[in-house]
Input
Amino acid sequence: MCLPQVRLRAAEPVRHTPVTSRPVEVDEDGLLVHPLLAAPPTLSLWRAPTDNDELGGMAGRWRDWGLDALTRKVVAVRRDPGRVAVVADHFCPGGTVRHEQVFTAVEGGLLVEESVELPEALDDVARVGSVFETVAGLNLLEWFGQGPWESYPGPGRGRARRPPRSAGGRAVHAVSAAAGERRAARRTAVHAVRAGTPPGWRCGWTGPARCP
Output
């Protein structure tokens, strides 16, 4: 099956204007506090294993490493005008994972930048990403990138690029578990468009991501 496609040039970095007069709030555990979030961005090294993961033995290693039950401890919190940097260690039988989050107030939103350092022992984890949950009332999800169909990771040349697609009330992942990683998604947004909306979205990111 073929679809009409156009190869896009590499995405250019988005430049944000910091707003130092607007404070960024985190709780006593260094987790982001925001009125649009029901659960803050947290490190995720786990996803539900596929049949191939089980047959290949990867799923067993993930469980032995304890990727589904990380224990988090804050190492440092640095507060500057309009910016907070949080460093936390996550412990599991497979080793210690260092996770750094930088929250910066910018024009029109909040910039979240994250980096993760894995120990050598964790050489094939399920994913390296961040998961957060929005409040109820945001019933429209839009993204620009691969999809809307699932597609295996690879060169990406067989996956359609689409303008922003919406999914009111349907569970659609900008970055899904294994067979639909849309790593080239350039932007994702959630909106509230009508009253009586379903619960908010649970969103995840794999690899480098910037979320305004």
Notes: The first strand starts at residue 37 and ends at 44. The helical segments are 51-56, 58-65.
